[in-house]
Write a structure and sequence with these properties.
The complex is a heterotrimer. Chain A is elongated, with a radius of gyration of 19 Å. Chain A has 2 helices and no strands. Chain A has one domain. By secondary structure, chain A is mostly helical. Chain B has one domain: Response regulator (Rossmann fold), CATH 3.40.50. Helices cover 50% and strands 17% of the residues of chain B. Chain B has 5 helices and 5 strands; from the N terminus they run βαβαβαβαβα. Chain B starts with a strand and ends with a helix. By secondary structure, chain C is mostly helical. Chain C folds into 4 domains: 409 residues, Sodium/glucose cotransporter (Up-down Bundle); 74 residues, no CATH class; 99 residues, Signal transduction histidine kinase, dimerisation/phosphotransfer (DHp) domain (Helix Hairpins, Orthogonal Bundle), CATH 1.10.287.130; 163 residues, 2-Layer Sandwich (Heat Shock Protein 90), CATH 3.30.565. Chain C is built from 34 helices and 7 strands. The chains are: A mainly alpha, B alpha/beta, C mainly alpha. At the B-C interface, helix 1 of B face helix 29 and helix 30 of C.
Amino acid sequence: MTRRKLVAAAFFFTLFGVLGFLPPIIALFRFDARPFGVPVEAVYVFVLWGLLVLGARWFSRALPEDGTQAAQRPGEEP
Amino acid sequence: MGTDILVAEDEPGILEALSFVLQRAGWTVQSVTDGDAVLSAVRRERPRVLVLDIMLPKRSGFEVLKQLRADVLTRALPVLVLTARGQQQDRRIAEELGADRFVTKPYSNVEVVDAVRALLVDRTETGAR
Amino acid sequence: MTLTADLVIATAVAYVGLLFLVAFIGDSQTRSKPGGLLRSPFVYTLSISVYCTSWTFYGAVGSAARNGLEFATIYLGPTLVFIGWWFILRRLVRISHDQRITSIADLLSSRFGKSSRLGVLVTVLAVIAIAPYIALQLKAVTSSIEAIAGASEYGRGSLEGWDEVGLAFGVAAGMALFTILFGTRNVDAKEQHHGVVAAIALEAVVKLTALIAVGLFVLYAGGGLEPIFSAAAASGHDIHASQTFGDRWIASLLLAAAAIICLPRQFQVTVVENSDESHLRTASWAFPAYMLAMSLFILPIALYGLSTLPSGSNPDMFVLTLPLAAGQDGLALFAFIGGFSSATSMIILESIALSIMVSNHIVVPVMLRLSADDGAGDGLGVRRLILNARRISIILILLLGFSYFYLTRGSDALAPIGLISFTGVAQFLPAILAALFWREASGKAAIAAIATGFVVWLWASFMPSFASSSPLVAMIMAEGPFGIDWLRPQALFGLDHLDPLAHAVFWSLLLNSAVLVIGSLLTSQSALEHVQATLFLNATRRTPTETSPLRGSATADDLFLVARRVLGHARAVALFSEEARQTGMPWTTLEPSPAFIHRLERELAGSIGSASAHVMLSKVVSGDAVSLEEVMQMADETQQAIEHSQALERASAQLRATAEKLENANRQLRKVDLQKDEFLSQVSHEVRTPMTAIRAFSEILLSEKDLDPVSSRRFMSTIHRESLRLTSLLDEILDLSALERGERMWEARVVDAEAALDQALRVCDALARQNGTRMARGERAGRAMVSADPDRLSQVLINLISNAIKYNTTPDPVVEVRSFVGEGVYSIEVVDNGPGIPEEERPRIFDKFYRGRQGEAVSFSGAGLGLPISREIVARMQGTLELVDGPGPGGACFRVRLPLAPAEAEPEIATS
């Protein structure tokens, strides 16, 4: 993927994360199911949360380095 | 009263040819070669017709024509204007200033002779009346 | 193990001691080993988790017990911000590094033209908005101590005689002391507190472990997830039952997302304490993971507490009371330490962050204003003042928190208090986003927007929290101020069907953003604002534009005094020595470059904030406003709108210019057309005249049979002569047109120009005699070698001399020809004593067919092409032909100038 596409992917990943936690999507999970006794909306929230963490981990490595990093920080005491 | 025609022309070749054909046609011819001389020659010689070139030294043919028409004595003098600059503008100016005939160089000798003769006839008829 | 209040307090104090030790070691370790463990991205991540305060530790359980899943929004909001780190946090960190931003107030102040007014506003509002949050921590710590003391069979111990308020005050005082000891030991160059961060990281580990320990205990005690959820459902606590995903869900999600950016302490740890941008990469997933871990057991703990503990127990304290009820005193103590950790870390960092804002944006500017003298002072003055200001503000902040706690002690839930603070700090969000993404946002609009949002917040969110303690507030809430119904704090403009939280969030942020947008559209930016906006927007470009808004000159001495006042002697000396070393100039004669002043400003900004640093340096640097405008232009790469309109303007200017050019060309064409007409009529005249003679004589010869031979011979020779004249006229026309086209029709060679002149004089001699003109012999050069075609040169000279003869109408015509050599140039002058050329005709004398005044109709033989041709010829010989002022009063003087042929000229002169 090109740098631009990666950044765009990261953006939409975040955007769909936001949408996933908002009604109406989240309201889809208000039906009566209790895997392991846990209400399904709670399961949904935590599973999506976990997926977002995994996705963020992938993106944190995939997103490009961009220029000015630690090397070029002025004023740092030696 | 001897002069029929006064020719004002600065080009010697043209002057000689003009004089020759006009004399051959039976008229007496006098000539001048610059604009200033025209006016005095007209008063002195009292020609019946003036053949006037536009490009004259010292005083242009237009200027001469204008002065002739301004003077009561010479107002009626028939004038044949010759020009080498075959432009409509010259012809219009000449007519406005009161030229009676207009001939463009190079002309045929017959053309000039006929024009002069016509002016002389007009003059005669006017005079007869 | 018997758990008493005294033991709890002793443990807390011991724990604080441990933290202090960690902080101390942390500080000294960073000093000796810059790249150590404390600089790892995980320590950075753990320090960010200061977000999880005792609100999380205790309040989340309470919130879950009351509102089910809603507690999760507080962590989902930040999760979303962090997984989208590339778009907001990265910019914030980059900008803050570049600009040496010290706080959120500094960020906004810096972006909006280093506006100190905005800095003050943000600082004051932040202090007010955070008060409930601090109160929340005090309340949590107090309640937790009370919970343990209440449960203890040994009574209150040394707490005997202390009520809740007194205890809270004691906690506040202890926290203040602790924070002062921790956070105000020095004014750091970049407001980074590595020791504090180390302690915070430790606390993050402690609170997570404690919460997970309690969670595992609950799972164990409750027999697993399913029994806990079933039991809760059976006792009427079903998550399904609550309408979770409504306006309140959205509002708190938004608030939490805003808070992770806007809370002063979060800005402090995420942005200011960030020592390496790549750490943000790790935190982008690790911090959400941390919050996920913190949240995993909240629901089981809450539900288990609800179904097992007697009804009426405070759900906020379940984390503590569940182990206590099960007799797990050790676990309870650990849980207490966990809760205490979360409270202390929050209070420490929040008050450090706020105190930095107070000292940088209020105290230092006031001090700068008061000490109008350039005040060298002793080097320690400013530093000591700053430290003291911070200490006092820490006390003030905790006092404010305590006051809020005192005034609202009637309400008992933790989470709503936190949300009030969140709503308050969220008012910074529109301005921050505008700072990052909207170039046109203006400082005035930002001030108005934040103020508007805050007024709404005060009215709709902050004030209602006093309803339980103030009858007046309760009355306003019920009926509106002075009975104005539509101003009721929780039903503004008649909007009464929203949840109060969503209501306050909706109105405050809506009005806030509206004022920001409309205000920015209506107001204009100052130059400095413009520069800063560009810097902020370009921060993440690969080639960041560096600019120094402060330009001008200052002496090194002045700068050093300023630097010493703020940074301290050692750092100032280090800074100046470095500059001296780099420029290779001795200390004393150091001339501060703009770059150095800029660096100095950033260094100072790191200590006292950008606005103050700017003011301070402006006092000694005599910059000029013009240079600022220059910088503005230079810095502004993407001012597309302006450039676009400029491009339009340029285009229309070009159009105008083109139209003008066209008109000029048209005029030129008309002129050329006229000239052409003139030319044609001239050519016509010149051609017709000989033609007339030729025709007339030919007709005579043809028609007159009886001509005498002499006449006919003369007539024929006239015809011949006129034919020749006609031919030479046509030759001239062709010659000129060829010359004008640049065709070369002769060979230039080195010749004696004097010989050509002699030749010309010989040719004209006859003409002169014929006209009665005297040829005066002027001085002659003798011999002059030029590069020319001798025939052509003669042609030019003949033309000039014959003109002088022909147009000389004076009674006693004289033409003088002279030549001379000077400075490598050979000149010939042809002078006559004729009437001369009138002034108005001089410019046109070299025009084609131009022959003196038309009206005068001077007779001459040429067609008016002689001079143009001559000029062209001379130009071909690298010379000039011009009309110059003659020596006498009348007459004309034409001068030909030709360069002498370089090599041959002199030797030949020498030999001759």
